[in-house]
Amino acid sequence: MENTAFGTRERALLLGLMTLGGTASNPELRAHVGDALDGEPRRRVNKYGLVTSEKLGRSYHHTLTDDGWAWCVTELEGSAPERGGALGRTLYEVLRVIKGYLDATDLSLAEFVVKAREGGAVATGDLTKAIRDAYWHLAREPQDWVLLTHLRAQLEDASREEVDEALRQLEQLPDVHLVPEADQKMLTDEDRKAAVLIGGVSKHLMAIEAR
Q: What pLDDT was estimated at residue 122?
């Protein structure tokens, strides 16, 4: 696909969102790239279908769509911003090297980012076990629905980003279920903040079928 001619700020935010695994809140983006996806840049990427944005509490949470990931892949071979200087040109050469690696290994950009991020401070396998343990501490019996608000409170040693990624991995397993709250009026602001975005849908509740 031919990339939309975004400015430096929008390009930085889209690539920054990509490096965070394709999903992040504005506070996470601000901490990571020094800027938030709001105002006209947010409206533009939403308009072009590259990002879905949902307001949770006071902050927006953003997720790259399939078209958004495709934009990032194309940008790997893009040209540096005119005012990027030597650093900008060098960084875009690094992106070209990454694109060459992906082509040589037949690896998707999303897979590459996930694999690269697996070396974080908390091992995903350990964290998924910790989430299961927290669930059984809160649930009275198998298949009880537990709010992620309560679950996250049991996982204070792990970052929001790490817990979100572990929840997404668990959701792919046949015995783990994550769903939105059917009655949205019952949700508190904390419940909305604690939700995990999966496929552009905010999910507030978790159930596990058996130990």
A: 42
